[in-house]
Amino acid sequence: MLTFTNTYSELQRAVSYHQLGQLDQAENIYRKILEDDPQHVDALHLLGLVTYQSGRAEIAINLMKEAISLSPESSNLLCNLGDIFRALGRFEESIQVYQRAMVVGSKSAEIYNVIGLTFKDSGKTEEAIQAYQKAIRIDSAYVEAYNNLGNSFKADRRFKEALQAFQQALKLNPNIAEIHNNLGTVLKITGKIEEAIGAYKTAIEINPDYPHAYSNLGVAYAELRHFEEALQAFQQAIRINPKHSQTYSDIGVSFAGLGQFDKAINSCKRAIELDGHNYEAYNNLGNIYNELGQPEDALQVFQKALAIKPQVAEIHYNFANALKAADRLEVALEEYKCALDINSNIPGAYNGIGLIFHDFGDFNQSIDAYQSALGLKSDYFEVYNNLGNSLKCLGRIEEAIQAYNCALRICPNYDEAEHNLGLTLLTKGIFSRGWVLYEKRWRISSTRRQVEQYAEQSDFCRSYVKTDFPQPLWDGSRLDNKSILVWMEQGVGDHIMFASLLLKLRYHAQRIFVESEHRLLPIFQRSFPGIDFFPVQSPPHSQLLDESIDFQSPVGSLPRYLLPNEDSFVKCVSYLEACRHKTEVLRRKYLQLSNCKFIIGISWKSKNRSFGKLKSTSLDHWESFLSHFQQDCFFISLQYGDVQDEVDAFIGKSGIKIYRDKDIDPLENLDDFAAQVSALDLVISTSNTTVHMAGALGKPVWTLLHYVPDWRWMLSRSDSPWYSSMTLFRPEKLGDWFSVFQQVTVNLEKLLLGKKNGNCAENRGL
Fold it and tell me: What angle do CA 602, 604, 605 make, to 5 degrees?
């Protein structure tokens, strides 16, 4: 049997083992003491702690309760039991025990503090705040309670009160690194990034081995886009804690900000290796894939993030962005709505919804969504730009201009808004200012560049970022005895339209070199004698790299200096010349096939990736019109692309004959296509390459426009300054193709009647 002295000595030895983490040795001694004295309170109490630390919670609780039964007035015993219950998530039992401890003990402030921690852990933020406040009322110098109070205010998004709590804690003790770190976090949340950085740096000065402060410092630098400084801070955090998953995830974001995407991806993947449940790492990885234009990869990782944390609005929002990029618009719309159901304060989600409704052609709903976004973020300049686009599509031109100007007041160098404003001014016929802003097409975002770069059916165009030519850009200065290189941009339709300016340029420059889409070379060489043409290729033809050429200019920049107003447009019936022999052969062929009917070429849709849906029709829209004139007219398909099945299905359903010349490929052989168009009596088409070809050839062409068409067709007018042989037909309202075809029907009836009367007069010898 142990004596009192021996028992005390053994207990101290056990406590030493306990403190060193040698739990088995400590437990053996505690149990030996209890063999001699089963009611030894300290041994029971400490054995309970050891068994809990060894993972035997229920045994520990029973031992603690036994100790408390022997010493019911011990607040220390009660508090330790409460701590065990709290750690096990048994919050109600924990609070009951703490309250009992408060009754019997004297450390009521400390107990209120731990009660607050328990409420916090159970998600009862308001109750936690009240408990901390009670602790502070008892002990106004209780630094820990102020810190905990600040954390609860932060969790409840009561940031002003959180700041006050942390600041008061630091007044009491300015040397606690954790509180400076917590203060920094609230400062960052409230947009005071520079002050937050100062707080994190103070935390690090106090504790140079504080990994969380380094991580938070890195995040703050990243928000300022100081990615190099962010990486330095993150690397310090990793040095201290090399297996901290979230830091690797944040490193990935910084590498992405620097454009080092391989490193960014690897960092996020490392974060996931360290913690497969790190949904933020999956989220960041998805954003990187989205930025790289890999939406399918992004979708996969966003789905994994949502499987881990389905109630995070940000992930649903980012998932929606990826779905939109993958052109899965219906699903994207639902994900944006899901994000807003979780958190209604996401202006970007409303913007995404607006963009989708715009793509659907529902401009009123699009506008409503943009206005919701602006209600949450009044300086959201991208939304003002998007709002302008939707207003413009509804014909609300002045409001659109106001929206673009709002975007530019907030962000004066916002290239996309300037570009869109320029197009709108051109639509109104305000050429001088419009052409200046048209130059912003070079600086718009990579996504937009890609869209416009492949407009219509062009296979290859010059980069919108950087040209490959060494000559200085033409600035509108005199070209007397000078040479200039003009290189083509955008799509085939734009090639043809802007080529009219070569006629004006020829009067100014001594020599002109033109780099052109290869399919247009035969036509251009025939039509512009004296101009040297070269095919677009990479690298450019060696002759075009000759630095003795005085200037260079993209063709779309010529109007800035050559078309200051409407009177300056080229006045000629045609400027392109089709092969006469090919034209004559095709004319005879079509007259024979038609039995000398009036020959009309038709085209009904555009392949433009940005606006093709808006300005395209289906053959169903044409059925009544074609049926009405099939006795007097012979219709030939000029539609490029693989449309044979579409045409066959329409013919089979309607019985209307549309001839398709299989010997001519309007997509690949533009010289043959030019001859085909020249062989016709009339061309009727929606706005696409066909109308540009017909207009440039001087062929009568009727262009069918949607409600607010492309800038080049302007507003209201029925003619075009670009093409003297063109007539424009406009709808009365949005989505109204019926009124367009009504107008075309009336005009064709008049034309056919005039031809019939003319033929009768000739037969009478008049």
Answer: 140
List, in order, residues 6 or more apart from 460 with CB less than 8 Å away: 517, 536, 538
From the list 464, 558, 460, the residue with the least C-alpha distance to 506 is 558
Tracing tokens 């989505």 back to the chain, one arrives at 735
The residue with tokens 């398909």 is 637
**Rounded alpha-carbon distances, angstroms, from residue 296 to 79, 99, 211, 284, 329:** 53, 55, 35, 15, 14
Tell me how far apart the alpha carbons of residues 602 and 729 are, in angstroms, rounded to a whole number. 14
Q: Which two tokens stand for residue 588?
A: 């005879």
CA angle 266, 268, 269 (to 5 degrees): 60
Which DSSP helix (H) or strand (E) runs through 516?
A: strand 511-516
Q: How far is the CA of 263 from the CAs of 248, 251, 267, 581, in angstroms? A: 11, 9, 6, 61
Contact assessment for residue 63 and residue 37, using Cβ atoms and an 8 Å cutoff: no
Question: In the 3-class helix/strand/coil scheme, how is 301-330 assigned residue by residue?
Answer: HHHHHHHHCCCCHHHHHHHHHHHHHCCCHH
What residue segments make up the domains of the chain, in order of their start? Answer: 50-292, 345-444, 449-571, 580-762
On whether the CB atoms of residues 283 and 315 are closer than 8 A, the answer is yes
Residue count of the chain, please give it: 766
- Number of Cβ within 10 Å of residue 715's Cβ equals 13
pLDDT given for residue 270 in this prediction: 97
In angstroms, the CA 217 to CA 100 distance is: 42
Q: Quick one: CATH architecture of 50-292?
A: Alpha Horseshoe (1.25)
Q: CA 188, 194, 200 angle in degrees (round to 5)? A: 70
CATH number attached to the domain at 580-762: 3.40.50.2000
Contact assessment for residue 177 and residue 206, using Cβ atoms and an 8 Å cutoff: yes
Q: What are phi and psi of 551, to 5 degrees?
A: -140, 165
Give the pLDDT score at 105: 65
The rounded distance, in Å, linking the Cα atoms of 181 and 213 is 6
Confidence (pTM):
0.80
Strand pairing of 701-704 and 483-487? Answer: unpaired
**Cis amide bond preceding 564, omega within 30:** no
The C-alpha atoms of residue 640 and residue 621 are separated, in whole angstroms, by 18
User: Interior CA angle at 645 toward 644 and 649, to 5°?
Assistant: 120
pLDDT score for 456: 34
Class of domain 345-444: mainly alpha
The rounded distance, in Å, linking the Cα atoms of 691 and 693 is 5
CA quadruple 133, 138, 143, 144: dihedral sign: negative
Tokens of 80: 């330790």
Q: Whole-angstrom Cα distance, residue 498 to residue 83?
A: 79
Give the residue from 750, 747, 752 showing the smallest Cα distance to 728. Answer: 747
Query: Which tokens belong to 200?
Result: 């994190």
Instruction: Quote the pLDDT of residue 766.
Output: 28
Q: Which helix (H) or strand (E) holds 637?
A: strand 633-637
CB of 315 closer than 8 Å to CB of 302: yes
DSSP characters over 172-197: H-TT-HHHHHHHHHHHHHTT-HHHHH
Q: How much is the CA Rg of the chain, to the nearest whole Å?
A: 38
Alpha carbon distance 761, 763 (integer Å): 5
Q: Cα-flanking dihedrals φ and ψ of residue 684, to 5°?
A: -125, 125
Question: Beta partners for 511?
Answer: 483
Comparing C-alpha atoms, which of 199, 256, 191, 180 is closest to residue 225? Answer: 256
- The reply to whether domains 50-292 and 345-444 share a CATH topology is yes
* Cβ burial, residue 67 (10 Å; 0-12/13-18/19+): buried
Any idea of the CA torsion for 452, 454, 455, 461, to the nearest 10 degrees? 90
Q: Which residues of the chain have pLDDT under 50?
A: 1-2, 445-466, 760-766
Tell me the per-residue pLDDT of 219-267, one tens digit each, with 9 for 90 and over: 999 999 999 999 999 999 999 999 999 999 999 999 999 999 999 999 9
In whole angstroms, give the CA distance from residue 721 to residue 108. Answer: 87
- Rounded to an integer, what distance in angstroms lies between the CA atom of residue 745 and that of residue 625? 7
Q: How far apart are CA 604 and CA 640, in angstroms?
A: 10
